[in-house]
Amino acid sequence: MNDTPLIQVRGLTKEHGAGASWVRAVDDLDVDVPEGQTLAVMGPSGCGKSTLLHLLGGLERPTDGEVWIAGRRTDILSERALAHLRRRSIGFVFQAFHLVDELTAAENVELPALLAGRSPRAARRRAESLLDRVGLADRARHLPSELSGDQRAR
After folding, report:
1. What letter does residue 35 receive in the DSSP assignment?
2. Which of 123, 59, 124 is nearest to 86 (CA)?
3. Which domains does the chain have, with CATH numbers?
4. Residue 87 and residue 113: Cα distance in Å, rounded?
5. Exposed, middle or buried, 36 (CB in 10 Å: 0-12/13-18/19+)?
6. Is the pLDDT of residue 2 over 70?
7. What is the pLDDT at residue 154?
8. What is the reported pTM?
9. Is residue 7 within 8 Å of residue 53, measured between CB atoms?
10. Whole-angstrom Cα distance, residue 27 to residue 16?
11. Which helix (H) or strand (E) holds 13?
12. Using CA of residue 71, residue 73, residue 74, residue 79, what is the dihedral sign?
């Protein structure tokens, strides 16, 4: 068993704005998340939850501190290396869903696999499996506008 936490954060800080609009969204955070542990990030609106998740996923750069994922320091990676890491190892479920309106549910699920270089056939099989797993196999050919909010989230 590996003793290195899956996620390690040391002195993580993120500041936004300047002058009167300056905000420290994340303030000198240290945290270890072991592999297999479920972690909930909770707090009131505006407390930095989304900023923290963006920092962990490499969507934003910290003002200070370090982010380690699976033993690899990610806050110093190039944009290209971060994109590769996100494509291969990190999944996001955004509040706004970020579905492509012109694509069916199945095509929206297939898209990340195709962008990662999987074959269309493999992407299609994986999408069918995932949609079945979340109870949407019967909605695979529907556009996002034809899905409920809950279905779009899944």
Report:
1. T
2. 59
3. 7-78 (3.40.50.300), 105-153 (no CATH)
4. 9
5. exposed
6. no
7. 83
8. 0.68
9. no
10. 12
11. strand 7-16
12. negative
Closest CA to 140 of 96, 108, 97: 108
Distance of CA 92 to the CA centre of its chain: 2
The CA dihedral of 27, 32, 35, 40, to the nearest 10 degrees, is -40
Tokens of 68: 């380690």
Is the Cβ–Cβ distance between 64 and 30 less than 8 Å? no
DSSP 49-102: HHHHHHHHTTSS--SEEEEEETTEE-TTS-HHHHHHHHHHH-----TT----TT
Place of tokens 């694509």: 103
Q: Output 95 or 17, whichever has higher pLDDT.
A: 17
